[in-house]
């Protein structure tokens, strides 16, 4: 039996290791356009200590380690580009502490967003976390490792801004804690200790997040989704500026898509309103519609599309069926809100050129401090030409993000290289130093954020 396989079975037990081709096959792909990459082993640890032992062994053997959560980025970020061990973290899914009064939860990083939501519904229905629009199997750790954002992005920003503490296994195997938990206190704050934030946005290439303290927020009793519609895309930045001034919405998403045909070239703003009483709901609705949106209606340039929809969110995943093959991948970006019109127009052009119905979406982050703008491209998995069209469209869109002055979010390796080619040389060298210091053998998710 080979040495690495044997070491892995000793650490996590035989049932949780595999080197069987049919199981490696399922870990060689994600849902996007990336070509398959096979690992040599898959291991599913249960504790941070097991993760630490695996990483120490991998350092000795100079074998790559790729942390995997839900594998839902679509951008190939958890595919083993240099083979090695895929660490499937989904067994590390315990909810360790729910502190209702201080509004935080301590949770293992392999727990899914769906699990946390279900737990809160049951045990603390007056609290919520910022849930991404991703499938519920997406994990807390995977989302933080790429600076994800969820449905509380408008009031509270990125999910990675909602941390009270972190436990990380370093690439050399040490288990480190950051925040008040590092000095033995409760996991209630990350500040005011020195900033050691070297793990968010790195795609697991600087360490494996094993525990997280995540802030929770009030979950109001009533919620509704209203939709405001305009034809002229140049109005969207103004409308979003007005809506973020009143700050009455919980979530604000502007979107447009070619399908269904009646929606083509219309721009929808989904406005999520929540409240603890009918009066609070009515007050917020009045602030939004009577005070901020009525002038667009009076001028004949805007209309109410729908009111009080049951929290139906714009779902980019619906576009997966546009090509009848069940495939889609999107480029995400962090953009100034003012860029919406150009993002939409240029994105629709790219889609038309590649014969893909366009789907675009911009979620407001903070008080219009930025938006996560995405361009989604559907493809038919069974048709190589269709996949290639989507791939080309994705690459063109990465270039477009840079041209429009944005930053690619959760970039695939192509996008990472594009970003690093524009990066200030001192920053790039700093990234290289940090990676070399933390990961001297270059074993952690190699190929990601790799400075030449
Ligand atoms: C339909 C759809 C909608 C989406 N909507 C959103 C959205 O609204 N907001 C949003 O933020 N995202 C969204 N996403 C993108 C993505 O699915 C999520 O960000 C998801 O939370 C990523 O988590 P994951 O567990 O799937 O990560 P994975 O894909 O497993 O991993 C992501 C990266 O992090 C690394 N990693 C994984 N776990 C760890 C860990 N514990 N420690 C260190 N590194 C780790 C991996 O190696 C990889 O590089 C969407 C995706 C889809 C398919």
Q: Layout of SSEs?
A:
Blueprint lengths: L2 H10 L4 E2 L2 H6 L14 E3 L4 H14 L3 E4 L16 E4 L6 E5 L4 E5 L4 H11 L3 E2 L11 H6 L7 H4 L6 E7 L5 E5 L28 E8 L1 E2 L3 E9 L5 H11 L4 E7 L9 E9 L2 H21 L3 E8 L16 E10 L4 H14 L5 E7 L4 E11 L3 H20 L3 E3 L3 H9 L3 H14 L14
Parallel strand pairs: 2-4, 3-4
Antiparallel strand pairs: 1-2, 5-6, 6-10, 7-11, 8-9, 8-10, 12-14, 12-15, 13-14, 13-17, 16-18, 16-19, 17-18
The structure holds flavin-adenine dinucleotide.
The site of flavin-adenine dinucleotide (FAD) has 34 residues, from β3, α5 and β10.
What are the main properties of this structure?
452 residues, alpha+beta, Uridine Diphospho-n-acetylenolpyruvylglucosamine Reductase, domain 2, Uridine Diphospho-n-acetylenolpyruvylglucosamine Reductase, domain 3, Alpha-Beta Plaits, eight-stranded antiparallel β-sheet, five-stranded antiparallel β-sheet, 12 helices, 19 strands, 31% helix, binds flavin-adenine dinucleotide
